[in-house]
Amino acid sequence: MQVRSLPGLALALACAALAPHAWAGKTLDAVKQRGQLQCGVSTGVAGFSAPDAKGRWAGFDVDFCRAVAAAVLGDPQKVAFTPLNAQQRFTALQSGQVDMLSRNTSWTLTRDASLGLSFTAITYLDGQGFLVPKKLKVDSAKKLKNAQVCVQAGTTTEKNLADFSRANKLAIKPVVFDTYEAGFKALFAGRCQAYTADASALASIRNKEAPNPDDYLVLPELISKEPLGPAVRRGDDEWFAIVKWTVFGLQEAEELGLTRANVDQLLKTSSDPAIQRLIGSGEDTGKLLGLDKAWLYRAIKAVGNYGEIFDRNVGAQSPLKLPRGANKLWNKGGLIYPPPIR
Fold first, then answer.
1. How many percent of the chain have pLDDT more than 70?
2. What pLDDT is stored for residue 21 in this prediction?
3. Rounded distance, CA 17 to CA 12, Å?
């Protein structure tokens, strides 16, 4: 039996402590045992998360759920979607009803510090705006003095509206509703002069829900920062890492030109180490997350890269046709800057 010297043993122990490990977190174990990811989404925002004509959930936020299911379970269809309104969403995540929340929820200090959850990454940089009837003949939010504005309760939107009104001395009268749907329906019924929500949601409402979209206008001002992205329960760092790096991996896939259409070919032919790391033909990054080598290949194959997800659901190829704006990659003039997969 070989006996190491004490300095040699200490060095070996130090190296072992620094070596990369993967721990299977309790959420990952539960998802694997269940064979299904439980994902909390909105109650219906066209383009982001809403059932399609066949009752199948689809949209920008939905695709991140499907990407995580593909990475973890090998199948993007193994997701159960739970529609949650603003009042239900955090309790559902805290109680374990859902494994992740992927809906229009803004990342704020208060939520991050006090609700027992962790935001994983930013998937959409949004801002709060106003939808008004054109017949109101208002072209600026600063002309909404004494207006009744419909808004959803329990949201950052409600608080931002109060701040905006106070800062600009507008004396806006909020008309508060428990649900997103009740708020915009009240606008269309003439119960308020404007409806306020994230600008992306206003575009969805105008396009999908308005009796005649041409009769309504989204005012030009954005009155807040609304960074949106998936959240998980605090205390399971392994699950936090899986969701976070799945988002970053899809963003880096766009940066490297990996798409649903070319990922199979590049799996066989690419000699680029960065691409090989993403799709599992080079370094095994999956073992660091408790997953297999092809985790990110499957996510890209299932939903495409970040740009494909954006364009298909809310961007140029969608009915909403929202501009990429700040949601362009950092090297295209935007603010999306994923840490490297390596």
1. 93
2. 52
3. 9
Q: Shortest CA distance to 239 belongs to which of 98, 114, 145, 341? A: 98
pLDDT digits (tens, 9 = 90+) for 132-149: 999 999 999 999 999 999
Predicted pLDDT at 178: 87
Could you tell me the end-to-end alpha-carbon distance of the chain, in angstroms, rounded to an integer?
A: 38
Instruction: Name 38's bridge partners.
Output: 80
Amino acid at 276: Q
State the average pLDDT over residues 157-183. Answer: 94
The per-residue pLDDT for 22 is 53
- Give the closest residue to 204 by CA, choosing from 43, 46, 42, 44: 46
Confidence band for 259, pLDDT divided at 50, 70 and 90: very high
- Written as six digits, the tokens of 282 are 């080079």
Per-residue pLDDT of 46-93, as tens digits, reads 899 999 999 999 999 999 999 999 999 999 999 999 999 988 999 999
Output the average pLDDT for the chain. 92
Closest CA to 184 of 153, 211, 151, 216: 151
Distance of CA 212 to the CA centre of its chain: 29
SS3 string, the chain, reads: CCCCCHHHHHHHHHHHHHCCCCCCCHHHHHHHHHCCEEEEECCCECCCEEECCCCCEECHHHHHHHHHHHHHHCCCCCEEEEECCCCCHHHHHHCCCCCEECCCCECCHHHHHHCCEEECCCCEEECEEEEEEHHHCCCCHHHCCCCEEEEECCCHHHHHHHHHHHHCCCCCEEEEECCHHHHHHHHHCCCCCEEEEEHHHHHHHHHHCCCCHHHEEECCCCCCCEEECCEEECCCHHHHHHHHHHHHHHHHHHHHCCCCCCHHHHHHHCCCHHHHHHHCCCCCCHHHHCCCCCHHHHHHHHHCCHHHHHHHHCCCCCCCCCCCHHHCEHHHCCCECCCCCC
